[in-house]
Structures are given as structure tokens and as C-alpha cells.
Design goal:
The protein is mostly beta strands. It has no helices and three strands. Bound molecules: zinc ion.
Length: 61
């Protein structure tokens, strides 16, 4: 997400859906205070997560 105060972009590792909020008020580690941040999108593709696998049914019969 991007801080509207200092303009820096950084990643907030959270599990809830920031992308549905669009803009959040959060602590900025660069400004060292709470500022508004624009949510740029989810970054889970950069985290190296494997593609989600479907739960395979038991096929061992
Ligand atoms: Zn900032």
C-alpha cells in the first residue's frame, strides 16, 4: 500500500482483505505515525505461494 503522507509504497502483511477497503488509516513506518494509505492491491503473488490446489478426493480405490 502507499502512504499518502510520504508517498512510499510498502507491504502490509495481513490476512484480511485490504483490497476491498481501498483506503485505510494505518501506522506508517516511514512517517512514524498513523496516516492514510492507498491500497495498491494484494501482493500474494510475490510471496512465492504455490498455486492453490484443489482438494483431491481419495482416488486410491
Ligand atoms: Zn508515510
Amino acid at each position: 500500500m502507499k502512504c499518502t503522507e510520504c508517498g512510499r509504497e510498502w507491504i502490509l502483511p495481513v490476512s484480511f482483505r485490504l483490497d476491498e477497503m481501498g483506503k485505510i488509516y494505518h501506522y506508517c513506518p516511514y512517517c512514524k505515525k498513523n496516516t492514510f494509505h492507498i491500497v495498491l492491491g494484494k501482493v500474494e503473488d510475490e510471496a512465492g505461494d504455490p498455486a492453490p490446489r484443489e482438494e483431491a478426493p481419495n482416488l486410491e480405490e
